[in-house]
Write a structure and sequence with these properties.
It contains 14 helices and 17 strands. It is α/β, with parallel strands linked by helices.
């Protein structure tokens, strides 16, 4: 057993001073929390907060971050960005995927993400054929996560058609093809590969209603529920106006309406983006207990629009954050964008403050911890007994945090943290970041450089 003494620590019920955190360096879980402890412990820290779950990631897209920022016409959108992404898809191999994911996950840890839901749809060879091991690419991603030290919920993606009317997949989309039986095979292989099965798991992802038909979605959902009744189920939904329009033309319903009328959406579902939804849909999602998976930097980068955050939170909705396409891998930036987008639209300040808590940074951080943990289906996101020992040691000597205590720390972190404030990171009971740098950075970065030089 190891211990960390924190002068200030964000616990589930409140901030506390003089906290001694006992954790297992082998099993990676928190064993005991002592409040009002005497100074001591194996390590000492000024400020400790829980690591943030990242509920939505496409790891391979890290390699193209910044490469889709040239105008191609007056109507550049998600749909034109997608063509750039398809170009990368045509070249990236299993070794590249592992190297890119390794770099991404190291960056996430340095920024404060300590667990991730990987929405994995890059299943097949570039020509669309299966690998000899159907789980080849998924296993590469899982291996990269374990090597970096980040907990992972790997979500093999159902992807079987090219549009709402059952169109065939395009040649570029053949790499994504995965039916329910294939997903079950991949998930089983990944589960067997995990060294730590307590804080790594699999679930199910449905790419979108345009990419899979009702029969296959039902087969996948029923199969997943039979194997594990509480496993996470994630889906992209109502991300773009065109998607909503096409869905309505196909079914007479919006994507959210159609989903709720055909499936029992509950607290184990994560609806990713849900950017273009109606007031009635806001109420329906909130009432169901589903998590809204919000990715503000990617949604801004793609021109998707703004999620109706204020109205959703007024209805008691749950949310978490994700870095998605990884134009940013900072939880601070995601939360800042989430609040600032609402301020610009509503021409008001301090939108996200929770009832009974005037701190916007504190409200955002706590809500994203809780929603992200639920979306991953893991005991993460809290400094609490039996949870994964995922702790961020903030740089209390940084002038941004000088004189700060309690939620003033989180307000300053979210809204004034313009230089990295995460100094050390304990992930699964192991110190993986020291002085802001991943402990395996030299090897991970070399692997990434070699992969990217071959790709571009």
């Amino acid at each position: 057993m190891k211990t960390l003494f924190a002068e200030q620590a964000l616990l589930p019920d409140r901030w506390a001073r003089d906290v001694l955190i006992h954790y297992g360096p082998v099993d990676g879980r928190i064993i005991k929390i002592e409040r009002d402890a005497k100074t001591g412990g194996d390590d000492h820290a000024g400020i400790v907060v829980p690591g943030m779950p990242n509920l939505h990631s496409h790891a391979f897209q890290r390699a193209m971050a910044g490469l889709a920022e040239r105008a191609g016409g007056k109507d550049d959108s998600f749909w034109t960005w997608r063509q750039t992404m398809y170009g990368l898809v045509s070249r990236v191999g299993p070794g590249d995927i592992e190297a890119i994911a390794g770099q991404l996950y190291a960056e996430m840890l340095c920024q404060g993400y300590t667990s991730v839901a990987e929405f994995h749809y890059l299943h097949n060879r570039p020509d669309g054929g299966r690998y000899g091991n159907p789980a080849e690419t998924a296993l590469r991603v899982a291996r990269a996560a374990e090597a970096a030290g980040i907990a992972i919920t790997l979500l093999p993606v159902l992807y079987s058609q090219g549009g709402f009317n059952g169109e065939s997949l395009s040649p570029a989309q053949e790499r994504f093809r995965g039916d329910p039986a294939f997903l079950e095979e991949v998930a089983a292989a990944v589960e067997r590969s995990f060294v730590d099965r307590s804080f790594n798991r699999t679930g199910l992802a449905i790419h979108s209603l345009r990419a899979a038909g009702e029969r296959e979605i039902r087969e996948a959902v029923v199969g997943q529920r039979t194997r594990d009744a509480t496993a996470p189920i994630h889906i992209h939904i109502s991300e773009q106006v065109r998607e909503v329009t096409e869905c309505y033309g196909w079914s007479g319903k919006t994507p959210v309406e159609w989903l709720y009328e055909h499936f029992p959406v509950d607290e184990n579902w994560c609806l990713v983006h849900a950017t273009n939804i109606t007031r009635g849909e806001i109420d329906r999602i909130a009432a169901s207990g589903a998590i809204a998976g919000l990715c503000p930097t990617t949604e801004a980068n793609l021109g998707d629009g703004l999620f109706p955050f204020r109205d959703y939170m007024t209805q008691g909705g749950n949310f978490g954050i994700g870095s998605d396409s990884h134009v940013s891998v900072s939880p601070v930036e995601e939360l800042r964008w989430l609040e600032y987008g609402q301020r610009m639209v509503l021409r008001r300040r301090n939108i996200a403050a929770a009832p009974g808590n005037p701190s916007v940074g504190g409200s955002l951080w706590r809500a994203a911890l809780a929603g992200g943990a639920r979306a991953l289906g893991l005991k993460v996101g809290a400094i609490e007994k039996d949870h994964r020992a995922d702790l961020l040691v903030l740089d209390h000597e940084n002038l941004v945090l000088e004189g700060r205590a309690g939620d003033d720390i989180l307000d300053s972190l979210v809204f004034a943290g313009n230089t990295p404030l995460v100094k050390r990171v304990l992930a699964g009971g192991r110190w993986v970041v020291e002085d802001g740098r991943h402990v395996r950075a030299d090897v991970i970065e070399d692997n990434y450089r070699n992969a990217v030089r071959e790709l571009f």
